Amino acid sequence: MPNGYNGKILRVDLSSSSFKVEEPSKEFYRKYMGGSALSLYYLLHEMPAGVDPLSPENMLALSVGVVTGAPISGQSRMTATAKSPLTGAIGDAQCGGFWPAKLKFAGFDAIIFKGKAPSPVYLWIADGQAELRDASHLWGKVTGESEAAIKNELQDENIEVVQIGPAGEKMVRYACIINMCNRANGRTGMGAVMGSKNLKAVALGGNKKPKIADKDALSELVRWGAKSFPKSDVASTGKFGTASIVGGQNAAGGLPTFNFNSGVFDGWEAIDGERMYNSILAGCKEGKQDSRGRDTCFGCIVRCKRVVDIKEGPYQVDPLYGGPEYETISSLGSYCGIDDLAAISKGNELCNKYGIDTISCGATIAWAMEAFEAGELSQQDTGGIELKFGNAEAMVKLTEMIGKREGIGDILAEGTERASDILGCGAEFLITSKKQEAPAHMPQIKRNLALLYAVNPFGSDHMSAEHDPFYEDIYNAYKDRMELLSLDQPQPPQSLGTEKVKYTRITQCLFSLTDSLCVCQFVWGTAWQLYGPQQLAEFVQAVTGWDVSIEELLEVGERRLNMMRAFNAREGIRRDQDKLPEKFFQKPLKGGPTDGWKVDKAEFENALAEYYRQCGWDEDSGVPTRDTLSRLGLDWLADKIEL
Question: Is residue 1 part of a domain?
Fold first, then answer.
């Protein structure tokens, strides 16, 4: 029995209702670690280029890492990987909760789906045994209803369920996969892929705990984390959630407002983490809230997940569906000019009920609001909805319409770029890269994100590298950790030169690693996280018994990025798609300390060329060279792509 992982991957052919269990070698696991990298190995080997993302030929992998299920904070993460119906590129999304650890306890390290079931099904796995069950009675149900029905049917309240809601069934292009009714594999439309396969859910049971190579070393890391957490930079995330950064983002002029037309929002105090803590968290009373207002993932000390409970007023919210994160507060709030925290929480509840990515949903509504205010969309187009910035009722209504694909919601369910093409308007208002809507961190202010959003293989994403302007701040506070990553030349915030590109690339490799190890980036990361890079290596050593270094682990992250780039190259997605929307270059921000700011196009293009050079990619195409793939042990991949 290997340490940490099961050594078993479940293959499911939905078309034939058949199963196969593979047992890859130790060398395979050490090379890919799990998560995205493991999944990409199968997709690149077995799925031909050019398949329709919503066809049976697309493959979907749900994978955890070699350390998942170990008794320590930040390890219960799962990655979903497939060709994205939103972008047409590689799709990749992570979730937390208890389901990831439960997959390990159920006996597997990954599940890989092929084909399409003739009718709706769900997969039930317990103690290494799998079966497909009829899900026709679950089709059309929102997540809370279907999870309750599955638990009742299997007569076990302790099972864990990942599933799609009606949005995934209707193949909303940014539909997500949901577990615990409030944790999401949010981005790139992985829920739509499940829906296209008639796969409603995957339910798990079992208690097969992974073997730990060095329990004493792991216990020491646990004790260190418990002692250090109260004074760490992530402690406020535990108390106020990710929404703790709303005020800081606004003060810096970096809170996306009115569809990225401004970086400041007058109503920010009404929607920040402290206001949520003191008003609508479950159990809140007279400015205090009990532990029910903070939920957690398996084994984690941070407890950053919000639980909102609103019993009165026009926007009542069921605590089953959690509460809004910073990204949701921004996308359904400041993006749309909305300062009603109850309405934002209702929008979040609807997204979790129907299974919709809150970022793409809010950004798509904000785009429609800007087009409406510019006179490019009319009330006839919107079905009578006055779609103005600040209209909380319209935001809530449109969120549900998107989930149901009703009225204009059917068009907005295609994502903003496709909606713009269908409606013939609003191209100048887009905030998309590779057809994916931008998250709530502004490249006009955080300059390295201009590069990151463009080059990231699955579209604009805020969790794929460390943010600027934090290089200087992090270096001063965490010099030892930064120097371990060869990042020892802090740069001015509003710069995008060679060293800032290096900072982006190296931290991108580290964050890429975390999505293959499947660990939380609030707990394990570059510097400000609870544990630093050296401790991450010690964690892998303690669980697996492998004598890994941080250099070897960074190479795992680099390997994943190159595999993603190769996947995209096969799909014809190359340098010409590594771009930002013109709005970020042409339209200066209005108001606050970032008034007049925009992305400098020449600086961006220079950084892009420098990034390719540092990555060892062809500068004309942006495709990994044969030498780079060979260095990463990917010779098998070199023949599958052309420069």
Answer: no
